[in-house]
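BUG: 3D viewer hangs when loading the predicted structure for this chain

Environment: internal workstation, default settings.
Expected: structure renders.
Actual: progress bar stalls at 90%.

Input used:
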Amino acid sequence: MTPARRATTNLARGDRPPLKKGLGQHHLRSGALCRPLVRFLRPAGRTVIEIGPGGGVLTAELLAAGARVVACELDLPWAFHLRRALGADPALSILAHDALALAAGRLPAGTLAAGNLPFNVATAILQRLLEQAPAVEAMAFLLQKEVAERLLAAPGTKAYGALSVLVQARADASLLGTVKPGSFVPPPKVAA
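Structure tokens produced before the viewer hung:
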């Protein structure tokens, strides 16, 4: 069984720690949903900081694409679960650490970042990573649809604000697709 399939199977059968609503945890059910992010990053031979790996679905896809992954998971039981789900892959390092603190630190030039960002801290994480441009070379995240729309909002529209200005000043942002709520465990109330 491939690591991606193992991670997906573990989530589907409920072989996982409890989710903490306060941490905004909504984990992907399928690696297929992550592939556009992985294709965008082209991570082969590169190091990717993954924020909020949860059950490891995106992690497994990044590893399969040849990336070295530094997975940053705040919830310790989920960090242990990730290690169990993906084995001792030498290309995987797991940090039981707050992504906000990691994003605020100095990252090496050429950093790639990816993740299914916890909905409740996505904006703060994005702001901290964008403040480190150009060290962060590329980012690919699953975000709450409303947040993604704010990133791409045009001046003068209702969604346009400080986050729009920061993103558009420091990055070329685009929407790779939409993910339905039923694609997550548990399903959020909104699309991503």
